[in-house]
Write a structure and sequence with these properties.
The protein is α/β, with parallel strands linked by helices and 353 residues long. It has 3 domains: 43-135, Translation factors (Elongation Factor Tu (Ef-tu), domain 3, Beta Barrel), CATH 2.40.30; 145-256, Rossmann fold; 268-351, Beta-grasp domain (Ubiquitin-like (UB roll), Roll). It contains 9 helices and 18 strands. The strands form 4 sheets. Strands 4-3-6-1-2-5 form a 6-stranded antiparallel β-sheet. A hairpin with a 2-residue loop joins strand 1 and strand 2. The protein starts with 5 loop residues before the first helix and ends with a strand. 35% of the residues are buried.
Length: 353
């Protein structure tokens, strides 16, 4: 066999150099960091440019960057972290058509006793909100047919997905359920989108048709359907079960209103290194809930392991990391309180608190 030419030798040398580069984990981490967490990414002030009352107790805020700069781009299913003037932080889905205009739109239902939602409903044009993101824990994949299921305010991420399906000429069906017609935002707009596209909208309410029937909803699939659900955990679970049993749905995707229950948890102990306090964590509770018994002001937000608001320092103990925000390196010295927990029965996990 003949000797390789000069060009091939150059390629081989470049390949060896690249191999040495990618084995330097610290450099690779710097060049290709893990998904953003609470201290990384876009963070900026926005000004409320307009307010729209969408439905009973549902209000939309249209937000511009206060410094006049362009807003970060986003894709359907994305959300932003919003910090209110009083300091409460919550996640809100971006709604509407992604990439359209120079404003973000969030829609917030006022929940009785909900600190952040009640405050947001008192705000006025010109008020300032701190925003971080956007991030996407509910991405939209390409499908021949979309079956969207939204319960109440769960329509917010679903609407942006419908906007994209319309723009791309995809077939779609929306099953939209709420407690009453007056409580459901965007009904007229969604029905109009269906009229001018390959879409179909089904609206049902508790006060007329009763509770949703998961088997009937899944049967709206076409065997090639991707099912996207945003609503209560119980509804999402039952829809998943029906989808697995049948053949009408090819894919299942969900975003939950509330955290899923702890599964396969073990009791363990938290030790706060600075104060010396210890806190017992039950098998069916989160470290966040246990810690908030003694530290009610402990920060948190999503309760689902993706926003990073409750991340704390870790100095000891074996941890079962269940989050979607920390990199492997970060997990050596950090813990996400809302989902991660001790990996061994009755073990002690030491926090830098």
């Amino acid at each position: 066999m003949s000797e390789p030419g000069r060009g091939l030798r150059a390629i081989a040398a470049a390949s060896r150099m690249y191999a040495r580069l990618v084995t330097d984990s610290s450099l690779v981490t710097a060049l290709s960091p893990a998904r953003p967490r609470r201290c990384i990414g876009y963070e900026f002030e926005t000004t409320i440019d307009d307010i729209v009352d969408e439905a009973e107790d549902v209000r939309s805020l249209l937000l511009r960057r206060s410094d006049g700069a362009a807003l970060p781009t986003w894709l359907p299913g994305a959300h932003i972290d919003v910090t209110t003037p009083s300091g409460s932080m919550r996640q809100y889905s971006l709604t509407g058509r992604s990439g359209a205009g120079d404003r973000y739109r969030i829609s917030v239902r006022k929940v009785p006793g909900g600190t952040a939602s009640e405050e947001i409903h008192t705000l006025s044009r010109g008020d300032v909100l701190r925003v971080r993101g956007p991030r996407n824990a509910f991405p939209m994949a390409t499908a021949e047919h979309y079956l969207f299921v939204a319960a109440g305010i769960g329509i917010t991420p679903i609407r942006s997905m419908i906007e994209r399906a319309v723009a791309e000429g995809r077939r779609w069906t929306l099953y939209y359920h709420g407690r009453s017609r007056a409580s459901l935002p965007f009904v007229a707009e969604l029905q109009q989108m269906a009229l001018v596209s390959h879409g179909h909208v089904i609206v049902k309410t508790d006060d007329v048709e009763g509770l949703p029937i998961p088997a009937d909803i899944v049967d709206l699939g076409t065997r090639s359907s991707a099912l996207y659900v945003c609503g209560p955990a119980a509804l999402s679970r039952r829809l998943r079960e029906e989808a697995v049993r049948g053949t009408a749905v090819r894919e299942f995707h969900t975003e939950l209103f509330a955290p899923a229950p702890v599964v396969d948890g073990r009791p363990f102990m938290l030790k706060l290194a600075r104060s010396g306090d210890t806190v017992e964590v039950g098998a069916q509770e989160t470290a966040l809930d246990a810690l908030r018994r003694v530290r009610p002001d402990q920060p948190f937000s999503c309760r689902q392991g993706f926003c990073g608001a409750c991340v704390v320092g870790l100095t000891g103990g074996r941890v079962d990391h269940r989050d979607r925000v920390l990199s492997g390196t970060e997990r050596e010295s950090s813990l996400t309180l809302c989902v991660s927990r001790g990996a061994v029965d009755c073990d002690v996990v030491v926090l830098d608190l």
